[in-house]
Amino acid sequence: MNIQQAKANLEKFLGDRMLTFSIMKYQNGEWVAECNELPAIMTGGMGDDVAEMDRMIRDAILTAAGIDPKYSQQVLRFVDLKSPFRWGTNLFSHSSMRTAEREAEYVIA
After folding, report:
1. What's the half-sphere exposure (Cβ side, CA atoms, 13 Å) at 69?
2. CA distances from 57 to 1, 7, 41, 68 (A)
3. pTM attached to this predicted model
4. Residue 13 contacts by C-beta under 8 Å, 6 or more apart in sequence?
5. Handedness of CA 43, 47, 48, 51 (dihedral sign)
C-alpha cells in the first residue's frame, strides 16, 4: 500500500465525516478515548503525553480502516481539542473518578 492508496481507503472508510473522540482522564492517570461516530474505535493509556494520545488515536482510526499506521501523519489531520467535554457521551457513568474530559477532532488530510 502506498500513500495514495492509504488515503483512498480512508476516504472510502470515513466518507466525508469528521471523527470526534471523547477523552476521559481518570485520577489514577489512565485515559480512554472513544470515537463518538464509530464507538468501536477506542484506545487508551496512562499519563499526560498529548503526543502519545494523538499517536494512539490515529493508530486506532487507521487500524479500524485497515490502513498501516505509518501513514497517520499524511492521511489524518488533527483539527481541534475542545474542553469542556459534552456530557451526553460518557463512556463510563461513574463521574467522580474522572478528572478531565475533552474532545478531539480528526479529518482526512
Report:
1. 10
2. 21, 17, 9, 13
3. 0.76
4. 64, 65, 66, 67
5. negative
Full pLDDT tens readout for the chain, 109 residues: 898 999 999 899 888 888 888 888 888 889 999 999 998 999 999 988 888 888 999 999 999 999 999 988 888 888 777 664 443 334 444 444 545 567 777 777 6
CA–CA separation, 99 and 97 (whole Å): 7
Cα 5 from Cα 19, distance rounded (Å): 20
82, β-bridge pairs = 103
DSSP state for residue 87 in the 8-state scheme: G
Instruction: Kindly report whether the peptide bond that precedes residue 39 is cis, defined as omega within 30 degrees of 0.
Output: no
Q: Which three cell numbers stand for residue 67?
A: 490502513
What 3-state DSSP class applies to 29? coil
Instruction: Report the alpha-carbon distance of residue 102 to residue 109 in Å, rounded.
Output: 22
